[in-house]
Amino acid sequence: MAKINAFAIPRDDLNDKLGGGFPAGSLVVIEGGSGGGKSTISQRLSFGLNENDVSVTFVSTQMTTKGFINQMYSMDYPIAPFLLNGLLLYIPVIPLVQAAKSRFDFIERLMAAEELFEKDVIIIDTLSSLIKYSANTEKTLDLISFFKKLNGMGKVIILTIEPNQLTEDLASMFRSSCDVYITLKSKPLGSEVKRTIVVNKFTGAKGPVGQMIGFRIEPKVGLVVEIASVS
Fold first, then answer.
1. Residue range 86-98, pLDDT digits in tens
2. Where are the alpha helices (DSSP H) in the chain?
3. What's the DSSP call for residue 213?
4. How many structural domains are present in the chain?
5. Residue 191's domain is classified under what CATH number?
């Protein structure tokens, strides 16, 4: 049986709700609109994986290193030890995303950056904003087959995607080729936002997987899994 990369932490049961962790060799796609919680989920997964001695490369289009560290600590995910001992490699690509000329060969550059892919788990948040200028069917197929090759070596690849940044054809290529496909829904409910993790597909889970997991994000607490989820 494939090794399971657990991301359990004592204060929430996200890991239990998601089958006990991601099987080695999984391609995970987390899709959601702007402000839907993709980065928070990615940060929570990253911290939980590190807590379970799983090494992570976190590529972010969203934050500088300092911004990431501040954000993690604001949710009480103390990551400094993991950054120092090498269990976590954080790579901000904001300058690349902002420099127009580098956008067009980004897929090639990503595939050539070998040191990004040495860890057990690679999180790219948000992949769609990195490739939206350069992606076509052929390049996207190349990228997916590159990720699949890494999956074949036991790596877990977690990609977050904002669907409106890609054509429907390209977005559906990621959906159909992944092993775990999650969409994040959020709807205003009074003065709060009701957030839900919808698990559309989860291949090779060790334990039972919840189809809909309600969650909220709280300062100093991070991600909180709601006990009862009433839609």
1. 999 999 986 655 5
2. 14-17, 38-51, 65-74, 80-85, 94-98, 100-103, 106-112, 127-131, 137-152, 168-177
3. E
4. 1
5. 3.40.50.300
